Here is the input.
Amino acid sequence: MNRTKAFLQEALNLLNDGKGWTKKTFAANAEGFTVAPFSGEACKWCALGALHATTVSRRDWEDFGRAKTAISLVLERRYHKGSIDESLIEFNDSQENFSPIKKLFEDAIELSGD
Here is the structure.
């Protein structure tokens, strides 16, 4: 598995099939309060927050850039969204459930190749 795919998979794993996913904040603790995505208290993340948390744990801004590019391409092609940060936040916060977020990450992982 290449580094970008592994990075995206690690971020997706944080979201834990929706149990670790949140909206309207980058990250939340067990009480639902906003915390930094890389905080040890964080147990839920939005899609972008999961990318930030993975970046800090890996200390790898290069993979972060490649992962954001893959997600950006999926957002642009499938959902016709523009700027990655704004679009990913908007996309995340507009979802009723985790399924579209999971699909977004899976498509970005597939796009990242071997």
